[in-house]
Amino acid sequence: MNLLLVEDEIGLHTRITEFIPWEQHGIEIVGMAQNGIEALHIVGMKKVDIMIIDIQMPDMDGLTLAEEINKKHQHVRMIILSGYDQFEYAQKAVQLGIMDYLLKPARNEEILEAVLQTKKKIQMEQQERFNSNSIKEKWGYHLPALRNIFWNNWVAGQYAEWEIIHKSRELQIELQEDGLYMVAILAMDPLSDEELRFSRNDESLLQFSIQCITKEVLEQDACYVFQVSAGNTAVIFRRTDSENEDGFCHRVNYSITRLLSIVKECLKVTASAGIGQTAIRLTDVPRSYMQANAALQERVVYGHYVAIHSREEKESITETELPANAMKKLMVALDMCSKSHVIEAVEELLANVIQPERSIEEIQLQVLLLSSMLVQWMHGKGLLSKEVLGDDLHFFQNNQELISRHQIKEWLVRSLFAVLAYLENQRKKGVNKLTSSVLEMIDENLHDNLSLNTIAEKLFVNCSYLSRLFKMETGQPFSQYVIHKKMEKAKELLLQGDKVQDVASQVGYINVSYFSRTFAKIWGVLPSEVRG
Protein backbone atom coordinates (compact mmCIF):
# COMPACT_ATOMS: atom_id res chain seq x y z
CA MET A 1 0.00 0.00 0.00
CA ASN A 2 1.18 3.53 -0.82
CA LEU A 3 0.95 6.20 1.89
CA LEU A 4 1.01 10.00 1.47
CA LEU A 5 1.71 12.19 4.52
CA VAL A 6 0.23 15.72 4.49
CA GLU A 7 1.59 17.60 7.53
CA ASP A 8 3.26 21.00 7.94
CA GLU A 9 4.89 20.34 11.34
CA ILE A 10 8.48 19.27 10.67
CA GLY A 11 8.89 17.42 13.97
CA LEU A 12 5.76 15.33 13.49
CA HIS A 13 6.75 14.85 9.87
CA THR A 14 10.05 13.30 10.93
CA ARG A 15 8.57 11.14 13.70
CA ILE A 16 5.96 9.57 11.43
CA THR A 17 8.30 8.88 8.52
CA GLU A 18 11.39 7.70 10.42
CA PHE A 19 10.19 6.07 13.63
CA ILE A 20 7.31 3.91 12.44
CA PRO A 21 8.35 0.59 10.76
CA TRP A 22 6.16 1.00 7.67
CA GLU A 23 8.04 -1.44 5.42
CA GLN A 24 7.51 -4.31 7.87
CA HIS A 25 3.78 -3.91 7.33
CA GLY A 26 3.85 -3.55 3.56
CA ILE A 27 3.42 0.22 3.60
CA GLU A 28 5.51 2.55 1.42
CA ILE A 29 5.60 6.32 1.88
CA VAL A 30 5.42 7.66 -1.67
CA GLY A 31 5.30 11.35 -0.84
CA MET A 32 5.21 14.10 1.79
CA ALA A 33 3.37 17.40 1.43
CA GLN A 34 3.16 20.47 3.66
CA ASN A 35 -0.20 21.71 2.39
CA GLY A 36 -3.25 20.64 0.45
CA ILE A 37 -2.12 22.03 -2.89
CA GLU A 38 1.12 20.03 -2.81
CA ALA A 39 -0.86 16.94 -1.81
CA LEU A 40 -3.25 17.25 -4.77
CA HIS A 41 -0.28 17.51 -7.12
CA ILE A 42 1.33 14.35 -5.70
CA VAL A 43 -1.92 12.35 -5.84
CA GLY A 44 -2.25 13.36 -9.49
CA MET A 45 1.26 12.12 -10.27
CA LYS A 46 1.58 8.96 -8.14
CA LYS A 47 -0.51 6.00 -7.06
CA VAL A 48 -1.72 6.77 -3.53
CA ASP A 49 -3.88 4.43 -1.44
CA ILE A 50 -3.91 6.09 2.00
CA MET A 51 -3.41 9.69 3.15
CA ILE A 52 -2.68 11.04 6.65
CA ILE A 53 -3.95 14.64 6.64
CA ASP A 54 -3.50 17.47 9.14
CA ILE A 55 -6.51 19.79 9.42
CA GLN A 56 -4.76 23.11 10.03
CA MET A 57 -2.41 23.87 7.10
CA PRO A 58 -1.59 26.95 5.01
CA ASP A 59 -3.15 27.57 1.57
CA MET A 60 -5.64 24.68 1.84
CA ASP A 61 -6.82 23.05 5.07
CA GLY A 62 -7.20 19.33 5.54
CA LEU A 63 -10.99 19.14 5.27
CA THR A 64 -11.02 21.12 2.02
CA LEU A 65 -8.32 18.78 0.71
CA ALA A 66 -10.45 15.78 1.72
CA GLU A 67 -13.38 17.18 -0.26
CA GLU A 68 -11.18 17.56 -3.36
CA ILE A 69 -9.81 14.05 -2.97
CA ASN A 70 -13.35 12.64 -2.75
CA LYS A 71 -14.26 14.41 -5.98
CA LYS A 72 -11.25 13.38 -8.06
CA HIS A 73 -9.72 10.29 -6.42
CA GLN A 74 -12.50 8.27 -4.79
CA HIS A 75 -10.26 5.23 -4.29
CA VAL A 76 -7.98 7.08 -1.82
CA ARG A 77 -8.72 6.50 1.88
CA MET A 78 -7.95 9.28 4.40
CA ILE A 79 -7.02 9.55 8.08
CA ILE A 80 -7.33 12.93 9.84
CA LEU A 81 -4.62 14.02 12.29
CA SER A 82 -5.89 17.07 14.20
CA GLY A 83 -4.86 19.21 17.14
CA TYR A 84 -8.47 20.29 17.68
CA ASP A 85 -11.01 18.24 19.59
CA GLN A 86 -14.01 19.99 18.06
CA PHE A 87 -17.28 18.30 17.29
CA GLU A 88 -17.83 20.11 13.99
CA TYR A 89 -14.46 18.91 12.66
CA ALA A 90 -15.23 15.32 13.60
CA GLN A 91 -18.75 15.61 12.16
CA LYS A 92 -17.38 16.96 8.87
CA ALA A 93 -14.83 14.15 8.76
CA VAL A 94 -17.59 11.55 9.11
CA GLN A 95 -19.51 13.19 6.28
CA LEU A 96 -16.42 13.00 4.08
CA GLY A 97 -15.94 9.29 4.78
CA ILE A 98 -12.72 9.72 6.72
CA MET A 99 -11.47 6.33 7.94
CA ASP A 100 -10.12 7.56 11.31
CA TYR A 101 -9.81 10.79 13.33
CA LEU A 102 -6.69 11.03 15.51
CA LEU A 103 -5.93 13.77 18.00
CA LYS A 104 -2.43 15.19 18.40
CA PRO A 105 -0.15 14.22 19.92
CA ALA A 106 -1.07 10.75 18.65
CA ARG A 107 1.39 8.00 19.55
CA ASN A 108 3.24 6.09 16.82
CA GLU A 109 1.31 2.94 17.72
CA GLU A 110 -2.03 4.73 17.24
CA ILE A 111 -1.02 6.10 13.85
CA LEU A 112 0.28 2.71 12.70
CA GLU A 113 -2.87 0.93 13.89
CA ALA A 114 -5.10 3.44 12.08
CA VAL A 115 -3.17 2.95 8.83
CA LEU A 116 -3.20 -0.85 9.14
CA GLN A 117 -6.95 -0.86 9.77
CA THR A 118 -7.40 1.31 6.69
CA LYS A 119 -5.17 -1.02 4.69
CA LYS A 120 -7.28 -3.99 5.82
CA LYS A 121 -10.43 -2.17 4.76
CA ILE A 122 -8.97 -1.42 1.33
CA GLN A 123 -7.93 -5.05 0.87
CA MET A 124 -11.41 -6.23 1.79
CA GLU A 125 -12.90 -3.83 -0.75
CA GLN A 126 -10.45 -5.01 -3.38
CA GLN A 127 -11.31 -8.62 -2.64
CA GLU A 128 -15.00 -7.86 -3.00
CA ARG A 129 -14.39 -6.23 -6.36
CA PHE A 130 -12.16 -9.11 -7.38
CA ASN A 131 -14.95 -11.58 -6.65
CA SER A 132 -17.48 -9.74 -8.77
CA ASN A 133 -18.66 -11.37 -11.99
CA SER A 134 -17.17 -8.75 -14.29
CA ILE A 135 -13.71 -9.11 -12.74
CA LYS A 136 -13.97 -12.89 -12.95
CA GLU A 137 -14.70 -12.64 -16.65
CA LYS A 138 -11.77 -10.31 -17.25
CA TRP A 139 -9.50 -12.47 -15.13
CA GLY A 140 -10.49 -15.55 -17.09
CA TYR A 141 -9.84 -13.74 -20.36
CA HIS A 142 -6.35 -12.58 -19.35
CA LEU A 143 -5.39 -15.67 -17.34
CA PRO A 144 -3.66 -17.58 -20.20
CA ALA A 145 -1.47 -14.57 -21.04
CA LEU A 146 -0.66 -13.97 -17.35
CA ARG A 147 0.28 -17.62 -16.91
CA ASN A 148 2.50 -17.48 -19.99
CA ILE A 149 4.30 -14.45 -18.54
CA PHE A 150 4.70 -16.28 -15.22
CA TRP A 151 6.17 -19.40 -16.85
CA ASN A 152 8.58 -17.37 -19.00
CA ASN A 153 9.77 -15.38 -15.98
CA TRP A 154 10.09 -18.57 -13.96
CA VAL A 155 12.32 -20.38 -16.48
CA ALA A 156 14.30 -17.15 -16.90
CA GLY A 157 15.21 -17.33 -13.20
CA GLN A 158 13.50 -14.09 -12.24
CA TYR A 159 11.64 -15.43 -9.18
CA ALA A 160 12.67 -16.51 -5.71
CA GLU A 161 11.01 -19.68 -4.40
CA TRP A 162 8.41 -17.83 -2.33
CA GLU A 163 7.49 -15.72 -5.38
CA ILE A 164 6.98 -18.84 -7.49
CA ILE A 165 4.65 -20.31 -4.86
CA HIS A 166 2.78 -17.04 -4.31
CA LYS A 167 2.30 -16.21 -7.99
CA SER A 168 1.31 -19.77 -8.91
CA ARG A 169 -1.47 -19.65 -6.31
CA GLU A 170 -2.63 -16.29 -7.65
CA LEU A 171 -2.77 -17.75 -11.15
CA GLN A 172 -4.45 -20.99 -9.95
CA ILE A 173 -1.53 -23.17 -11.04
CA GLU A 174 -1.00 -26.42 -9.15
CA LEU A 175 2.61 -26.74 -8.01
CA GLN A 176 4.37 -29.18 -5.69
CA GLU A 177 6.87 -27.34 -3.54
CA ASP A 178 8.90 -30.51 -2.93
CA GLY A 179 8.27 -32.17 -6.31
CA LEU A 180 10.46 -33.06 -9.27
CA TYR A 181 10.36 -31.08 -12.50
CA MET A 182 11.88 -31.42 -15.96
CA VAL A 183 11.80 -28.96 -18.88
CA ALA A 184 11.57 -29.83 -22.57
CA ILE A 185 11.70 -27.41 -25.50
CA LEU A 186 10.23 -28.24 -28.91
CA ALA A 187 11.18 -26.42 -32.09
CA MET A 188 10.34 -26.83 -35.73
CA ASP A 189 13.25 -28.13 -37.77
CA PRO A 190 14.51 -25.79 -40.53
CA LEU A 191 12.60 -26.09 -43.78
CA SER A 192 14.64 -27.64 -46.57
CA ASP A 193 15.06 -26.01 -49.97
CA GLU A 194 12.93 -28.80 -51.44
CA GLU A 195 9.96 -27.88 -49.20
CA LEU A 196 7.33 -26.36 -51.50
CA ARG A 197 4.26 -26.27 -49.24
CA PHE A 198 5.72 -23.83 -46.72
CA SER A 199 8.12 -20.90 -46.84
CA ARG A 200 9.98 -18.97 -44.14
CA ASN A 201 6.96 -16.68 -43.89
CA ASP A 202 4.98 -19.65 -42.58
CA GLU A 203 7.36 -20.44 -39.71
CA SER A 204 5.36 -18.50 -37.11
CA LEU A 205 2.19 -20.34 -38.11
CA LEU A 206 3.96 -23.70 -37.90
CA GLN A 207 5.39 -22.84 -34.48
CA PHE A 208 1.92 -21.93 -33.25
CA SER A 209 0.56 -25.19 -34.69
CA ILE A 210 3.20 -27.15 -32.77
CA GLN A 211 2.16 -25.39 -29.56
CA CYS A 212 -1.52 -26.22 -30.17
CA ILE A 213 -0.73 -29.87 -30.91
CA THR A 214 1.43 -30.06 -27.77
CA LYS A 215 -1.36 -28.68 -25.58
CA GLU A 216 -3.86 -31.14 -27.03
CA VAL A 217 -1.61 -34.20 -26.86
CA LEU A 218 -0.37 -33.47 -23.31
CA GLU A 219 -3.71 -32.21 -21.98
CA GLN A 220 -4.02 -35.08 -19.49
CA ASP A 221 -0.32 -35.05 -18.60
CA ALA A 222 1.04 -33.46 -15.43
CA CYS A 223 2.75 -30.56 -17.19
CA TYR A 224 2.52 -26.93 -18.25
CA VAL A 225 2.77 -25.95 -21.93
CA PHE A 226 3.70 -22.42 -22.99
CA GLN A 227 5.46 -20.43 -25.69
CA VAL A 228 8.89 -18.94 -25.11
CA SER A 229 10.31 -15.79 -26.67
CA ALA A 230 11.92 -17.51 -29.66
CA GLY A 231 8.53 -18.90 -30.69
CA ASN A 232 9.43 -22.40 -29.55
CA THR A 233 7.16 -24.46 -27.31
CA ALA A 234 8.31 -25.23 -23.76
CA VAL A 235 6.89 -27.91 -21.46
CA ILE A 236 7.49 -28.09 -17.71
CA PHE A 237 6.77 -31.67 -16.62
CA ARG A 238 6.08 -32.38 -12.93
CA ARG A 239 6.23 -35.72 -11.18
CA THR A 240 2.96 -37.11 -9.86
CA ASP A 241 2.55 -38.68 -6.42
CA SER A 242 2.42 -42.17 -7.94
CA GLU A 243 5.72 -41.89 -9.84
CA ASN A 244 9.27 -42.55 -8.73
CA GLU A 245 12.11 -40.66 -10.42
CA ASP A 246 12.77 -43.34 -13.06
CA GLY A 247 9.09 -43.55 -13.91
CA PHE A 248 8.91 -39.79 -14.19
CA CYS A 249 11.88 -39.64 -16.60
CA HIS A 250 10.40 -42.47 -18.67
CA ARG A 251 7.07 -40.61 -18.95
CA VAL A 252 8.79 -37.43 -20.11
CA ASN A 253 10.81 -39.29 -22.75
CA TYR A 254 7.77 -41.23 -23.98
CA SER A 255 5.56 -38.11 -24.13
CA ILE A 256 8.11 -36.10 -26.12
CA THR A 257 8.88 -38.94 -28.55
CA ARG A 258 5.16 -39.52 -29.15
CA LEU A 259 4.58 -35.80 -29.56
CA LEU A 260 7.29 -35.45 -32.23
CA SER A 261 5.71 -38.31 -34.15
CA ILE A 262 2.25 -36.70 -34.03
CA VAL A 263 3.64 -33.33 -35.18
CA LYS A 264 5.25 -35.00 -38.18
CA GLU A 265 2.05 -36.88 -38.98
CA CYS A 266 -0.18 -33.79 -38.71
CA LEU A 267 1.98 -31.06 -40.23
CA LYS A 268 4.13 -33.14 -42.57
CA VAL A 269 7.19 -31.31 -41.23
CA THR A 270 9.54 -32.45 -38.50
CA ALA A 271 10.32 -30.99 -35.11
CA SER A 272 13.00 -31.75 -32.55
CA ALA A 273 13.18 -31.43 -28.78
CA GLY A 274 15.78 -30.73 -26.12
CA ILE A 275 15.20 -32.22 -22.66
CA GLY A 276 16.82 -30.82 -19.52
CA GLN A 277 17.85 -32.69 -16.40
CA THR A 278 15.66 -33.22 -13.35
CA ALA A 279 15.05 -30.20 -11.11
CA ILE A 280 14.56 -31.08 -7.43
CA ARG A 281 13.63 -27.53 -6.36
CA LEU A 282 11.40 -24.92 -7.92
CA THR A 283 14.40 -22.63 -8.30
CA ASP A 284 16.24 -25.38 -10.24
CA VAL A 285 13.70 -25.26 -13.09
CA PRO A 286 15.57 -22.41 -14.88
CA ARG A 287 18.68 -24.61 -14.97
CA SER A 288 16.68 -27.46 -16.52
CA TYR A 289 15.31 -24.98 -19.07
CA MET A 290 18.82 -23.81 -20.01
CA GLN A 291 19.94 -27.43 -20.35
CA ALA A 292 16.98 -28.18 -22.63
CA ASN A 293 17.84 -25.18 -24.78
CA ALA A 294 21.47 -26.25 -25.04
CA ALA A 295 20.42 -29.81 -25.89
CA LEU A 296 18.13 -28.54 -28.64
CA GLN A 297 21.06 -26.75 -30.28
CA GLU A 298 22.83 -30.09 -30.57
CA ARG A 299 20.69 -30.64 -33.69
CA VAL A 300 23.74 -29.26 -35.49
CA VAL A 301 25.41 -32.58 -34.68
CA TYR A 302 22.53 -35.08 -34.48
CA GLY A 303 20.27 -33.84 -37.26
CA HIS A 304 16.48 -33.43 -37.38
CA TYR A 305 13.46 -35.20 -35.87
CA VAL A 306 15.20 -36.18 -32.65
CA ALA A 307 14.73 -35.79 -28.89
CA ILE A 308 18.07 -34.84 -27.34
CA HIS A 309 18.73 -35.23 -23.62
CA SER A 310 20.98 -32.80 -21.80
CA ARG A 311 24.38 -34.25 -21.03
CA GLU A 312 27.21 -33.31 -18.75
CA GLU A 313 29.70 -30.68 -19.88
CA LYS A 314 32.13 -32.21 -22.33
CA GLU A 315 35.81 -31.40 -22.69
CA SER A 316 36.48 -28.66 -25.21
CA ILE A 317 38.49 -29.47 -28.34
CA THR A 318 39.78 -25.85 -28.37
CA GLU A 319 40.69 -25.96 -32.09
CA THR A 320 39.79 -22.63 -33.70
CA GLU A 321 41.37 -22.96 -37.15
CA LEU A 322 39.67 -24.55 -40.14
CA PRO A 323 41.37 -27.55 -41.79
CA ALA A 324 43.80 -26.05 -44.31
CA ASN A 325 43.52 -28.84 -46.93
CA ALA A 326 39.73 -28.70 -47.01
CA MET A 327 39.75 -24.89 -47.32
CA LYS A 328 42.31 -25.09 -50.14
CA LYS A 329 40.11 -27.59 -51.98
CA LEU A 330 37.15 -25.24 -51.62
CA MET A 331 39.09 -22.25 -52.98
CA VAL A 332 40.32 -24.32 -55.94
CA ALA A 333 36.76 -25.51 -56.62
CA LEU A 334 35.54 -21.91 -56.66
CA ASP A 335 38.33 -20.83 -59.01
CA MET A 336 37.42 -23.78 -61.28
CA CYS A 337 33.72 -22.81 -61.09
CA SER A 338 32.97 -26.50 -60.51
CA LYS A 339 29.76 -27.24 -58.60
CA SER A 340 30.64 -30.89 -58.05
CA HIS A 341 34.02 -29.99 -56.58
CA VAL A 342 32.37 -27.35 -54.38
CA ILE A 343 29.96 -29.93 -52.90
CA GLU A 344 32.83 -32.37 -52.33
CA ALA A 345 34.89 -29.69 -50.56
CA VAL A 346 31.92 -28.63 -48.42
CA GLU A 347 31.33 -32.22 -47.28
CA GLU A 348 34.97 -32.53 -46.25
CA LEU A 349 34.84 -29.21 -44.41
CA LEU A 350 31.68 -30.07 -42.49
CA ALA A 351 33.06 -33.47 -41.54
CA ASN A 352 35.87 -31.64 -39.76
CA VAL A 353 33.77 -28.79 -38.35
CA ILE A 354 30.72 -30.68 -37.05
CA GLN A 355 31.84 -33.39 -34.64
CA PRO A 356 29.97 -34.83 -31.62
CA GLU A 357 32.94 -33.97 -29.40
CA ARG A 358 32.61 -30.28 -30.14
CA SER A 359 30.37 -27.96 -28.15
CA ILE A 360 27.76 -25.91 -29.98
CA GLU A 361 29.85 -22.78 -29.25
CA GLU A 362 32.89 -24.33 -30.95
CA ILE A 363 30.85 -25.34 -33.99
CA GLN A 364 29.40 -21.85 -34.28
CA LEU A 365 32.90 -20.38 -34.04
CA GLN A 366 34.10 -22.66 -36.85
CA VAL A 367 31.13 -21.64 -39.02
CA LEU A 368 31.89 -17.98 -38.25
CA LEU A 369 35.51 -18.43 -39.34
CA LEU A 370 34.37 -20.14 -42.52
CA SER A 371 31.88 -17.40 -43.38
CA SER A 372 34.49 -14.70 -42.68
CA MET A 373 37.02 -16.35 -44.98
CA LEU A 374 34.44 -16.65 -47.76
CA VAL A 375 33.48 -12.98 -47.47
CA GLN A 376 37.18 -12.02 -47.61
CA TRP A 377 37.63 -14.21 -50.68
CA MET A 378 34.67 -12.55 -52.40
CA HIS A 379 35.99 -9.08 -51.64
CA GLY A 380 39.38 -10.11 -52.95
CA LYS A 381 37.67 -11.07 -56.20
CA GLY A 382 35.96 -7.70 -56.38
CA LEU A 383 32.53 -9.07 -55.48
CA LEU A 384 30.05 -7.21 -53.27
CA SER A 385 28.71 -9.77 -50.80
CA LYS A 386 25.24 -8.19 -50.49
CA GLU A 387 24.73 -8.23 -54.24
CA VAL A 388 26.02 -11.77 -54.65
CA LEU A 389 24.46 -13.48 -51.63
CA GLY A 390 21.15 -11.65 -51.26
CA ASP A 391 19.11 -12.93 -48.30
CA ASP A 392 21.75 -15.53 -47.42
CA LEU A 393 24.08 -12.75 -46.25
CA HIS A 394 21.88 -12.69 -43.12
CA PHE A 395 23.31 -16.07 -42.05
CA PHE A 396 26.88 -14.87 -42.58
CA GLN A 397 26.15 -12.22 -39.95
CA ASN A 398 23.93 -14.43 -37.73
CA ASN A 399 25.38 -17.93 -38.05
CA GLN A 400 23.89 -18.95 -34.67
CA GLU A 401 20.55 -19.24 -36.49
CA LEU A 402 21.92 -22.20 -38.45
CA ILE A 403 20.73 -24.96 -36.17
CA SER A 404 21.45 -28.22 -37.98
CA ARG A 405 24.17 -29.83 -40.08
CA HIS A 406 21.74 -30.09 -42.98
CA GLN A 407 20.86 -26.40 -42.74
CA ILE A 408 24.53 -25.36 -42.59
CA LYS A 409 25.30 -27.46 -45.67
CA GLU A 410 22.30 -26.10 -47.59
CA TRP A 411 23.22 -22.51 -46.73
CA LEU A 412 26.88 -23.02 -47.63
CA VAL A 413 26.23 -24.78 -50.94
CA ARG A 414 23.50 -22.29 -51.86
CA SER A 415 25.81 -19.36 -51.13
CA LEU A 416 28.74 -20.84 -53.03
CA PHE A 417 26.56 -21.67 -56.03
CA ALA A 418 25.36 -18.05 -55.95
CA VAL A 419 29.00 -16.95 -56.12
CA LEU A 420 29.66 -19.22 -59.10
CA ALA A 421 26.53 -17.99 -60.87
CA TYR A 422 27.50 -14.38 -60.27
CA LEU A 423 31.04 -14.90 -61.57
CA GLU A 424 29.68 -16.59 -64.68
CA ASN A 425 27.24 -13.75 -65.22
CA GLN A 426 30.03 -11.20 -64.80
CA ARG A 427 32.10 -12.96 -67.41
CA LYS A 428 29.18 -12.84 -69.83
CA LYS A 429 28.41 -9.18 -69.20
CA GLY A 430 32.04 -8.09 -69.17
CA VAL A 431 31.32 -5.57 -66.45
CA ASN A 432 32.79 -5.49 -63.00
CA LYS A 433 30.75 -3.90 -60.22
CA LEU A 434 33.91 -3.14 -58.28
CA THR A 435 35.26 -1.01 -61.10
CA SER A 436 31.98 0.90 -61.20
CA SER A 437 32.35 1.61 -57.50
CA VAL A 438 35.89 2.92 -58.04
CA LEU A 439 34.76 5.20 -60.86
CA GLU A 440 31.96 6.53 -58.69
CA MET A 441 34.35 7.23 -55.81
CA ILE A 442 36.71 9.09 -58.17
CA ASP A 443 33.90 11.32 -59.45
CA GLU A 444 32.76 12.11 -55.92
CA ASN A 445 36.25 12.89 -54.57
CA LEU A 446 38.04 14.88 -57.29
CA HIS A 447 38.75 17.57 -54.69
CA ASP A 448 40.89 15.11 -52.67
CA ASN A 449 44.34 13.70 -53.28
CA LEU A 450 43.03 10.26 -54.26
CA SER A 451 45.14 7.12 -54.02
CA LEU A 452 44.34 3.61 -55.15
CA ASN A 453 45.45 2.26 -51.78
CA THR A 454 42.86 4.39 -49.94
CA ILE A 455 40.06 3.25 -52.26
CA ALA A 456 41.12 -0.40 -51.93
CA GLU A 457 40.94 -0.13 -48.14
CA LYS A 458 37.45 1.36 -48.30
CA LEU A 459 36.27 -1.44 -50.61
CA PHE A 460 38.07 -4.15 -48.58
CA VAL A 461 40.02 -5.51 -51.59
CA ASN A 462 43.66 -6.12 -52.40
CA CYS A 463 45.32 -3.02 -53.88
CA SER A 464 47.36 -4.91 -56.49
CA TYR A 465 44.30 -6.84 -57.64
CA LEU A 466 42.27 -3.62 -57.88
CA SER A 467 45.02 -1.97 -59.93
CA ARG A 468 45.05 -4.81 -62.46
CA LEU A 469 41.27 -4.96 -62.61
CA PHE A 470 40.94 -1.19 -63.11
CA LYS A 471 43.42 -1.10 -65.98
CA MET A 472 41.75 -4.10 -67.59
CA GLU A 473 38.29 -2.50 -67.41
CA THR A 474 39.20 1.12 -68.31
CA GLY A 475 42.22 0.63 -70.54
CA GLN A 476 44.45 2.96 -68.54
CA PRO A 477 46.23 3.00 -65.15
CA PHE A 478 44.42 4.40 -62.13
CA SER A 479 46.67 7.46 -61.67
CA GLN A 480 46.44 8.44 -65.34
CA TYR A 481 42.65 8.10 -65.30
CA VAL A 482 42.36 10.28 -62.17
CA ILE A 483 44.56 13.02 -63.68
CA HIS A 484 42.43 13.13 -66.84
CA LYS A 485 39.21 13.33 -64.78
CA LYS A 486 40.67 16.16 -62.68
CA MET A 487 41.76 18.10 -65.75
CA GLU A 488 38.35 17.65 -67.40
CA LYS A 489 36.74 19.04 -64.26
CA ALA A 490 39.28 21.90 -64.15
CA LYS A 491 38.55 22.85 -67.75
CA GLU A 492 34.83 22.88 -67.01
CA LEU A 493 35.30 25.19 -64.00
CA LEU A 494 37.63 27.57 -65.89
CA LEU A 495 35.11 27.88 -68.71
CA GLN A 496 32.59 28.90 -66.06
CA GLY A 497 34.85 31.81 -65.12
CA ASP A 498 36.41 30.44 -61.90
CA LYS A 499 39.86 31.71 -60.90
CA VAL A 500 42.89 29.46 -61.54
CA GLN A 501 43.82 29.25 -57.85
CA ASP A 502 40.25 28.27 -56.88
CA VAL A 503 40.06 25.65 -59.63
CA ALA A 504 43.35 24.09 -58.54
CA SER A 505 42.00 23.71 -55.01
CA GLN A 506 38.71 22.22 -56.24
CA VAL A 507 40.50 19.42 -58.10
CA GLY A 508 42.89 18.60 -55.26
CA TYR A 509 46.05 20.58 -56.13
CA ILE A 510 47.75 22.65 -53.44
CA ASN A 511 50.63 23.81 -55.69
CA VAL A 512 49.13 26.08 -58.40
CA SER A 513 52.28 25.94 -60.56
CA TYR A 514 52.23 22.15 -60.62
CA PHE A 515 48.52 22.27 -61.49
CA SER A 516 49.21 24.66 -64.39
CA ARG A 517 51.98 22.42 -65.80
CA THR A 518 49.74 19.34 -65.58
CA PHE A 519 46.83 21.19 -67.21
CA ALA A 520 49.05 22.42 -70.05
CA LYS A 521 50.40 18.90 -70.58
CA ILE A 522 46.87 17.55 -71.04
CA TRP A 523 45.20 20.42 -72.94
CA GLY A 524 48.17 22.19 -74.59
CA VAL A 525 47.35 25.57 -73.04
CA LEU A 526 47.84 27.17 -69.62
CA PRO A 527 44.82 27.51 -67.32
CA SER A 528 45.14 31.30 -67.45
CA GLU A 529 44.61 31.15 -71.23
CA VAL A 530 41.24 29.45 -70.91
CA ARG A 531 38.35 31.89 -71.12
CA GLY A 532 34.71 31.35 -70.25
UniProtKB/TrEMBL annotation:
Keyword Translocase part of the UniProt annotation: no
Principal subcellular localisation of the protein: cytoplasm
UniProt entry tagged with the keyword Transcription: yes
InterPro entries membership: CdaR_GGDEF, CheY-like_superfamily, Homeodomain-like_sf, HptR, HTH_AraC, HTH_AraC-typ_CS, Sig_transdc_resp-reg_receiver, Tscrpt_reg_AraC-type_HTH
GO biological process entries: phosphorelay signal transduction system
Gene Ontology terms, MF aspect: DNA-binding transcription factor activity; sequence-specific DNA binding
Domain Response regulatory: 2-119
Domain (HTH araC/xylS-type): residue spans on this chain: 436-532
Cellular component annotations (GO), alphabetically ordered: cytoplasm
Pfam family, one: Response_reg
CDD domains: REC_YesN-like (cd17536)
Residue positions, PTM 4-aspartylphosphate: 54
Descriptive protein name: DNA-binding response regulator
Keyword annotations from UniProtKB, A to Z: Cytoplasm, DNA-binding, Phosphoprotein, Transcription, Transcription regulation, Two-component regulatory system
Tree of life domain: Bacteria
Annotated compartments: Cytoplasm
